[in-house]
């Protein structure tokens, strides 16, 4: 288990770093070097290896594939001939370097050692607090934004709203994306943020309201929705129920287990729109629209 420094200010939520921050530069370069060797060169070879830098050199072929795919003006092999992979890195911008890392992930997928390298990269990016992670890209595996930009913008606006729910959401965000990830803390704070935003609206007289009782009340009242003329305008109630039921760590005894990092991320990203909808008043009790009423009130045909 890696050493963890003392926790920073828990109210600082913006903890996903763009590009290649200074602390990631050296370990990422080391990963690229090891991956290039393990992916381009076969595990065993029964014939003498071709001379490095020739067109038969497997690393040269791989670099040429990248040149072709990116329409690169100066071949990477020129950089490699000058100073190995260090020359390649020197001649690339940060964006090009990340593109090359994504190319290696795609290239490594299914390789005899590639899957191990991909897992190493996933861990490295998470520990560095990078906004990038390994995910599905163009039908294969590659680098993707850990949180889509639009979601991050919405989260920032909600966190910076100066409400207690926004502060709790910021702490949840930091607990899942920060340098000291704590999935259990993140999930709990995500639920508390939604409770803080919505309990006074859903159950103003219940001082002990929880997300579970909020969901129960909203389902019983059956008229909570967004201002959308669609049968799915009540989807936020199901979202809140999903968030509540997914927290298995609230159960004692045999039902207890800590949430996984993926579950915690999902919980926090579920909480973002719920907090925003409650605090803005968009999620409220409304009379069913004509369209939804007519769809729900049509009697079913009797059986012959």
Keywords:
304 residues, mainly alpha, two-stranded antiparallel sheet, 4 strands, elongated, disordered C terminus
Fold blueprint:
Elements: H1 22-40, H2 58-70, H3 76-90, H4 94-108, H5 114-127, E1 132-137, E2 140-145, H6 149-159, H7 164-177, H8 183-202, H9 211-221, E3 224-225, H10 235-245, H11 261-280, E4 284-285, H12 290-297
Antiparallel strand pairs: 1-2, 3-4
Question: Describe it for me?
Answer:
This protein has 304 residues and is mainly alpha-helical. Helices cover 56% and strands 5% of the residues. The chain has helices spanning 22-40, 58-70, 76-90, 94-108, 114-127, 149-159, 164-177, 183-202, 211-221, 235-245, 261-280, 290-297, and strands at 132-137, 140-145, 224-225, 284-285.
Short recap of the structure:
With 304 residues, the chain is mainly α. It is built from twelve helices and four strands.
Class from secondary-structure proportions = mainly alpha
Order of helices and strands: HHHHHEEHHHHEHHEH
The biggest beta sheet is recorded as:
2 strands, antiparallel
Overall morphology: elongated
Low-confidence stretches: 43-48, 293-304
Range of strand content: 5-15%
Query: Whole-number radius of gyration?
Result: 25 Å
The number of helical elements comes to 12
Number-wise, the strands total 4
> Mean pLDDT, nearest integer?
83
């Amino acid at each position: 288990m890696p050493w963890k420094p003392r926790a920073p200010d828990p109210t600082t939520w913006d903890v996903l770093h763009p590009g290649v921050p200074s602390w990631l530069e050296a370990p990422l370069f080391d990963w690229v070097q090891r991956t290039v060797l393990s992916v381009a060169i076969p595990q065993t070879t029964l014939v003498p290896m071709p001379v490095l830098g020739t067109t038969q050199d497997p690393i040269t072929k791989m670099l040429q594939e990248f040149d072709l795919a990116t329409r690169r003006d100066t071949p990477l092999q020129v950089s490699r001939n000058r100073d190995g992979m260090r020359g390649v890195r020197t001649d690339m911008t940060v964006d090009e370097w990340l593109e090359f890392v994504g190319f290696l992930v795609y290239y490594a997928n299914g390789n005899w050692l590639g899957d191990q390298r991909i897992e190493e990269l996933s861990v490295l990016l998470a520990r560095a607090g990078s906004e990038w992670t390994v995910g599905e890209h163009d039908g294969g595996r590659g680098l993707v934004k850990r949180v889509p930009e639009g979601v991050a913008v919405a989260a920032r606006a909600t966190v910076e709203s100066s409400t207690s729910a926004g502060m709790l959401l910021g702490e949840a965000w930091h607990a899942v994306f920060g340098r000291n990830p704590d999935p259990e803390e993140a999930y709990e704070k995500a639920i508390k943020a939604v409770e803080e935003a919505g309990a006074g609206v859903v159950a103003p007289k219940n001082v002990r309201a929880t997300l579970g009782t909020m969901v129960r009340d909203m389902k019983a009242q059956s008229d909570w929705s967004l201002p959308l003329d669609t049968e799915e305008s009540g989807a936020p109630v199901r979202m809140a129920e999903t968030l509540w039921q997914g927290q298995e760590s609230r159960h004692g005894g045999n039902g207890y287990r800590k949430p996984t990092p993926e579950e915690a991320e999902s919980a926090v990203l579920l909480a973002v729109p719920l907090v925003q909808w409650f605090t803005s008043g968009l999620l409220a009790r409304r009379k069913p629209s004509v369209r939804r009423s007519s769809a729900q009130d049509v009697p079913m045909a009797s059986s012959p």
